[in-house]
Amino acid sequence: MYVLTVDTSTSYVVAGIVEVSDSAAEVTSEEQSQVSVLAERVVDNPRGHMELLTPNIVDCLAEAGLSPEQLGAVVVGVGPGPFTGLRVGMATAQAFADALSIPVHGVESTAAMAVRSILEQRRNGVSNLDESAELHVLADARRREWYWASYALRAGDNSTDLSQCTLETLREPAVDKPAAIVPQLPAGSPVVMGKTIADDSVDCVSDADAQPSSASLVIAALLARGGVNQRAVRSLRGTGKPLRALYLRRPDAIEPKPKPVPTSVDFGAVSGEQDGDKQDREHEAAGAELLEPRVVMLDRSHAEAMEKIEHQLFVGDSPWSLAGIQHELDAMNTQYFGLIAGDQLVGYLGLAKNGPSAEPEWEIHTVAIAEQQQGRGYAHRLLRAALDAVDAAGGPVFLEVRTDNDPAVGLYERYGFYITGTRKNYYQPSGADAFTMMRPASGEDVDASQFHGADPRNKAARENGQNSFQPVFASRSAEDSSKDEAVSSSRVILGVESSCDETGVGIVELTTETTGPQVRMISNRVASSMEQHARFGGVVPEIASRAHLEAMGPTMREALRDLRKDRAARGMSTSYMEKPDAVAATIGPGLAGALLVGAAAAKAYAAAWQVPFYAVNHLGGHVAVDLLAEQSGQTERAEAPAEQTDGPGLDNVIALLVSGGHTQILHVQGVGKPMQELGSTLDDAAGEAYDKVARLLGLGYPGGPIIDRLAQQGNRKAIAFPRGMMRQQDSRYDFSFSGLKTAVARHVEKAEKDGISILVEDVCASFQEAVCDVLTFKAVRAAQDVGATTMLLGGGVSANSRLRGLLADRCSSAGIQLHVPPMSLCTDNGVMIAALTAQLIAAGAEASELTVGTDPGLEVEVPLV
Fold it and tell me: Which superfamily is assigned to 655-821 in CATH?
């Protein structure tokens, strides 16, 4: 078996190909005969992980004479290590595994460093296996702190080699100040440390340049499975645990203290949905804090709270009664994991053990998250807790899930579950079908392909009547081939977006017609981490980066499922893992850490699939997505008819981009050509101004949708807020919103001082009118100045109802054709990246190099890097 190894937890970029023997022959006395490094690249470049890792992997494959399809597993160091570099390696490793449908296994990077030192000492005859001395690992954690961990090699019955050895963790990886760590190092115990933290106060340093190696990563993974032996090697073919980065630090984000709602702001006239919002604001103003839920074991005292959630979620499928829930909680073989926030139950998971304790099997009965708490990653926490308990005892896990619940299916697949069959009319009284899913025992030697035929979403499996546990890679019929040839002129492009807080994967099809390139949307999958940022009043970059790493794999798999569905719907043959003809990613502008995760993953997918990679401009994507036509009756559902292009040309177009990070007027003069920035905000972006005003009024985050909703009930002319940058001497196309924000604050403060009550909906409507008035006036002015007859509107704020309406009116009066994206494509998404790339490919653009880096400050003039 060939194993790809990756580690970016230190200043070193480590990549390699390791051959691991899993033959039936007995293991020989030297572990090196079991683990052979075919190719390796180790480069000391603390800021080069993004640029070097994937190209080095490609070089290693070439040196080893292998193609990506020949890889059988991936082993990656999961830290601890500096966050940004660590995520590049983990995103790359996970993407290679996903693309090739092979398992990925995480090992502690400090454990791999310890193993490397042990192997080196043994080669030099310094130590023997019967010496079980502690080995301490120190690594640079930056901020004048160290990561440290302690290990000891424990020999089994056979002490002449590593076949019966394990690496015992004596001290879990932690982070602390050097002054706190050094006194705890036992005198005389060997220490290995990274070269960047050389410290004279540390004695017995056996290696002052410690880093993981390809061999030590694999051997550390094998030692965790009982030694360098045949059984452990086979287990690398089995499903690994979900990767978890060892950050060891919480994000540096401080939750702002709730501001009291100004007493002058009157919420009384706001009706309907806003009543609940008002109560929420009052609750927050009273000092209530958003508490991080904790996992607990549930008992009968939680039954009534469980019943409320049960009836809320399963109203159409016979929810359990209170008595039924109490019976479940009392059952000897069943345990329920709950998530408690404060004193409130927000979710639960039921886990039952079947069979003898020596060979148990497990069944997940239900996973339920209260509706108002969904979208915050709470299901992940419950699954992790349950699967940790399962893995401690061993055994496979089974569950059922509705066939139409794609998000849940994707969640379970991420944790190693496979579809093994379908149960018709399983849920009553709705009659909904259920997938049966299984997760093999951790470390079990299971070939994942045996489950592929059981997935009824695969057309070939359905039509050929294949049963569970059979491969679906049947030969293609002549009819299938002819259908495929009919679309051979088309190209499928996959786009990845991760510039801020949305993880987006989009797929489009590019077809070259006599009338020009046609772009059809196939999939638009987006996972947002907005809920995680809400309590901080804005996007926290570190939280966004962590969320991208967690969401990238599941979001990608959902998009690829859409691609399979699309091919099947058109009568084309499919395979379990469809792949695109090209992969693209946003490389800027955006948040530095967030960009790295998406771009690193996209590069890895492209390399694993052996297709071209395109590094494109985020802002150009917002322009290109307008080339996808608006269609009446469009739905967000993935099953909706794919969208056809009927958009404008780009020879002379004005684009107004409005979001939380950008407010710009761009002059577009052709696909693939540099866009000219005519104007931009001199201070706050428009979306940022919305958020700040919303916080001022106590409305919550994000402010844009809330203000827009309230403004629809207010009087736009109630308050004459100033229009910034509208004087004769001001720039024709630039914006400024800081003065408007200040004017709102002063108006509220004055009303409070004078004892006057002002309607919140009037404040929102008047503020929104001031923003939209300036945006639309200057955009139309720019179009008239350059002679453009087409206007494009893009960015997250383009979903604003007043901005869309006012711009439509002004464009119509000026004889300008306005193109506005569908609501689902207004915010950041992967479709816009794929759409831009499709247009670039049609224009003859060359692919990017895999060595390209990200650029948080990328200028709009650069559409492709």
Answer: ATPase, nucleotide binding domain (3.30.420.40)
